[in-house]
Amino acid sequence: MCIFFGALLAPASKRPLPWIEFLPPHHKLVALSSHIQKVNKWLIRIDFNQKWYAANTLEISGGSLPLEGRGRPGRSTARPEKNKRQENDNQDIPRHRRAGNDSDVRPSPGILGGVTLGYGSSNISGVTQDITTRTFDGRVEVAFGNGLSFGARYDRIDASVDGVALDLTGDMIGLDLGYAFGNGFAVGLYNEKAKIGIDGVPGSISARSYGLEASYETQGLDFGAFYGRKSSDLLTGVDMNDYGITMRYAMNDQLELGGNFMRTRLSSGGSSVDFDMIGVAGSYAFSDQWTAFAGINRASVDLASLDITTIGLGVSYDLSSMANFPGIASLELARTDLDLGGSSGSIDTVRIGFTIPFGANANKVPLNSVADSIMNPSHAVLSSTVLSAF
User: Fold this and answer.
1) Torsion over CA of 359, 362, 366 and 368, rounded to 10 degrees?
2) Terminal Cα distance for the chain, rounded
3) What would the pLDDT profile of 254-291 be if each residue is shown by its tens digit?
4) What is the pTM of this model?
5) Domains of the chain
C-alpha cells in the first residue's frame, strides 16, 4: 500500500496515469484506473491535508493532460466518465424512466420499450375448469431530443376455459404525445381504445379514452396526473370520465417503487357510479441477471359493493449473458380475490413470460406482471384491473 501511494506521489514524468483531477475545496487527488468503465470500483481518493499539489501537465498514455493553475488545486479539461447508471439514464430514456437532472431532463434521441409474450394458467375457487391465457404486451417510446416524445402500447389477451369451445379476447391500444420543458415538467395527450369480444360471435364491446396528462420529475422521483373522457358503444347517454395520479421513484440502481390511484366515474341523470383503483408495486435487482418484483392493487365499485384485490410476486432472469440477443425469462404467482356483497371467490394464477427489451437501461420487469400494470398503468380502471388479474 505504501509503495502504491508513493508511486502516485512521484513526479508526473515517472508515473503515467489515465486520469488525475483535483476536487476543491477539499484538495483531494482523484486517480482513476485505465478501466474507466469500472470507475465505481476503481475510484481512489487521497487527502493531502490542505497541501496543494503543483503541476502543469501529467503524462497520459503518451500524451499530456493540462491542469489549471500552478500551486493551487485545479480541474482537468477532461471530465470523468459517468457511472453506468447515470450514463444510461440520460440516453434513450423517456421522462418516466430517467433519474432526475437538475439542469435539463429532456430525453436524448432514442427508443425505449419492450415486448412480452406470456402464458398463464388460472384456477377459480369452486370451479373445476381452469382458464388458460395467452398474452402479448408491447410498449415503445420514441424521444426526438427536442423535448417531444411519442409513445405507443398494445396489449392483447386470449382466454379459454377448459371444456368450452369459445375463447374470450381482449385488446387495448394506446397512443400518447408528450413534450418535456427541460425543467422537470412535461405535458402530453393520450388516446386509448379497449375492446372485448368472443371468437366466432359477431360484434364486440369497446370503449375509447382520450385526455391530458402532466408530470414532474426531480432526482428520480416522478409524479404524474391525468384527466380524460371516455365513450362506449355499450353505454350511450352516459358521461364517463377518467382521472388519476401516478408516482415512481428510483431509489438507487437496484430498487424502484411505484404507485397509482385512478377513478372512472359514470354519471347520468344526476347520479353517478365510481370505479376506483389503488395500487403499489416495486422491483429489486439482486444482480445483473436476477430481479424480483411484486405488486398489489385493489379495485372497487361503490354501487355494487364489489372489491377486486390482486397481488403478484415474481422473479425474472436476464438471458443476455448466455445468448447473443437480449431476452428476459420471468415467472410470477398471482392471486385475485373477489368480494361481492358478502360473497367471495378467488383466482390463483401462474404466469410465465419472455421479454425482449430494447433501448438503453430497459426495465427488467415483464410487461405481463401485476407490478408493471401498476407502475405503467393504462388510463382506465377497468382495463388496468383486467391487465393485473390476467
Assistant:
1) -50
2) 58
3) 999 999 999 999 998 888 899 999 999 999 999 999 99
4) 0.72
5) 2-81 (no CATH), 105-389 (2.40.160.40)
